[in-house]
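Consider this today:
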Amino acid sequence: MAERSVRWGILATGGIAASFTADLVDLPDAEVVAVASRTPDAAKAFAERFGIPRAYGEWAALARDEDVDVVYVATPHSAHRAAAGLCLAAGRNVLCEKAFTLNAREAGELVALARERGSFLMEAMWMYCNPLIRRLKALVDDGAIGEVRHVQADFGLSGPFPPSHRLRDPAQGGGALLDLGVYPVSFAHLLLGEPSDITARAVHSEESVDLQTGALLSWESGALASVHCSIVGGTPVSASVTGSQGRIDVPHGFFFPDRFVLHRDGRDPEEVTADPADGPRGSLKHEAREVMRALRAGEAESPLVPLDGTLAVMRTLDAIRDRIGVRYPGEAPDEDPTAQLTPA
């Protein structure tokens, strides 16, 4: 007997919401039943585009919809705390885009709320659900390249982005770090966990957001990670993992790769390619499938994207912002963005 479809609600109607919904409607065990926007017209247009039966002109109406099993929050990250919190408080399960929130304090509040309510919550870090990234991690964990010594990852866009663009708007959590840098930082966390020390430098815009940021992360094991993000220059968007007995190189688009090259000392390089059965490159179906698997299994979080890991990434992003002097509106002047949170 086929399992009942998981019923999704979509909160926000921008580009990433459209991409995710397009993949969702192509999954036979997923059903998109509602969408919400801050304006009825935007919600209605989105619903008509994807054949969604219910369109709400306010977030709260979607949060109250008991026919929705899980809500995908696709607002700018400055609104994640409010949007995801509204849904969790109403008893909805939530998949929330990344960066998960503006800061670790907000992230901790969402995690605590989800755990208090017994609701499922996951950051939409689709990279962690990608089958080829999972294979790369398994190789590293199995010692294919020995002990990890260095991780490198970058993500830069050439722009230019005008001052009016959300990427340069402090009120929307603008800057390169939260929008793009979350990928290199999360890649390093996936392989090494939370760093013990962080140094960073940035170039700032007139609006006081980071145009480009470079950070050096270090671990007590002696491992280092070099991460870079930019909204003023296109980068290779590549990654590499160097170990004591080899290296793995991931070419352009490292967070949704179609191949990587495994170099093991004393052996010829091995190219590892994606399985065609996994679908097109850039598919968001893998994270959707993981959410639905977890919900059917009665899990409150995903082992692929654990909440403690999300909190650790947010602490690292906060620490980098502290080093480069970027603070967003609404953050208390005396708030310590590097304060450690005890997982709820």
Notes: Residues 337-344 have pLDDT under 50 and may be disordered. Residues 307-324 form the longest helix (18 residues). The chain has ten helices and 14 strands. The two ends are 38 Å apart (CA to CA).
